[in-house]
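STRUCTURE:
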């Protein structure tokens, strides 16, 4: 697994940064590690007392001052210690951070939770974001696979009242959607079953996004269906298109922000909650992940939204076969435990890969 910043290949220089010296690197890594663990500005005296750096406090103080001048550390107050800047976090994540493999029990928990999720795709992805939020204590969010990544398996039309029909769409990945529609014209079950049989014979194996309203109408000519029902079926097939953000994005864990000291500022908390309600920004983050390759870590100002300058986001695409089909991610404070969150997000993506691969071969 390779963590990547936006628009950066794994081995590219980090935003043009030169490699820091070994001693400077050690001090920067220790400052970031300590600040992530405690949330308190880090001073030179504390570092030399707590960590065996092999150098004097004066030398540490000089190195930290240099790191501040170069933009890797910030000093919140004149008399306080220092904290990592966006640049410092970026250097740490890309060059210094050791991987943190998950324990066998935690990996099995994620796999089990994904396997026991509903066979309805949206519900399964929503459950994945719920599980990830509980494990990371951050906001977790995910997007469901678009139907243009799926092929038609069958459509079932069920009469639930003289003027109401329940539609169930199943693709190669499982139950993709269902809805009940009320229509003015009465239609009996025999007529619905005959139409379903024609649809299933004609469209089996065809890409869902390739089936148009005109195709449905032509297929239904042998047993014409009411226009309102045909429009409803076409709508079910077209669900999850690019504009249908609110039905594809799932986010969980807003309450976790209350446990983070960075969000005790109510204005900052409100900005993130507004983001959850608006959805478009989170959706675009996941879409960039779908179009990319591997994990993405975006820190502070890299997110391109002023309200999120104190946040970081980790995302990872999941696949259907060999193609990226959706993505999962977490949003939390910049002072997040990056190695652990990368491991958790990666495990969730791999578990979704396995689930969808199993659905394809079922």
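SEQUENCE:
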């Amino acid at each position: 697994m390779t963590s990547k910043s936006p628009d950066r290949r794994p081995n590219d220089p980090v935003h043009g940064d030169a490699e820091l010296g070994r001693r400077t690197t050690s001090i920067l890594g220790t400052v970031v590690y300590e600040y992530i663990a405690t949330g308190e500005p880090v001073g030179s005296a504390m570092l030399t007392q707590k960590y065996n750096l092999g150098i004097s406090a004066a030398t540490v103080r000089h190195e930290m001052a240099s790191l501040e001048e170069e933009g890797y550390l910030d000093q919140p107050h004149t008399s306080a210690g220092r904290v990592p800047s966006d640049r410092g976090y970026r250097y740490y994540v890309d060059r210094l951070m050791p991987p943190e493999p998950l324990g066998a029990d935690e990996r099995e928990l994620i796999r089990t939770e994904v396997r026991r999720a509903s066979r309805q795709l949206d519900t399964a992805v929503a459950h994945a974001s719920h599980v990830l939020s509980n494990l990371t204590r951050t906001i977790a969010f995910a997007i469901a696979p678009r139907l243009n990544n799926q092929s038609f398996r069958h459509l079932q039309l069920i009469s639930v009242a003289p003027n109401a029909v329940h539609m169930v769409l199943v693709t190669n990945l499982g139950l993709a959607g269902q809805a009940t529609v009320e229509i003015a014209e009465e239609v009996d079950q025999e007529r619905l079953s005959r139409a379903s049989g024609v649809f299933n014979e004609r469209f089996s194996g065809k890409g869902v996004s390739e089936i148009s309203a005109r195709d449905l109408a032509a297929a239904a000519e042998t047993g014409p269906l009411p226009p309102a029902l045909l429009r409803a079926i076409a709508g079910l097939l077209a669900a999850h298109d690019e504009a249908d953000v609110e039905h594809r994005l799932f986010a969980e864990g807003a309450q976790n922000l209350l446990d983070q000291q960075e969000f005790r500022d109510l204005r900052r908390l409100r900005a993130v909650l507004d983001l959850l309600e608006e959805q478009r920004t989170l959706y675009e983050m996941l879409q960039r992940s779908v179009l990319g390759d591997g994990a993405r870590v975006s820190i502070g100002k890299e997110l391109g939204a002023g309200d999120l300058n104190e946040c970081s986001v980790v995302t990872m695409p999941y696949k259907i076969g060999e193609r990226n089909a959706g993505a999962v991610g977490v949003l939390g404070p910049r002072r997040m435990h990056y190695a652990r969150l990368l491991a958790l997000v990666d495990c969730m993506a791999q578990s979704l890969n396995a689930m969808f691969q199993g659905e394809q071969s079922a």
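REMARK: The chain has twelve helices and eleven strands.
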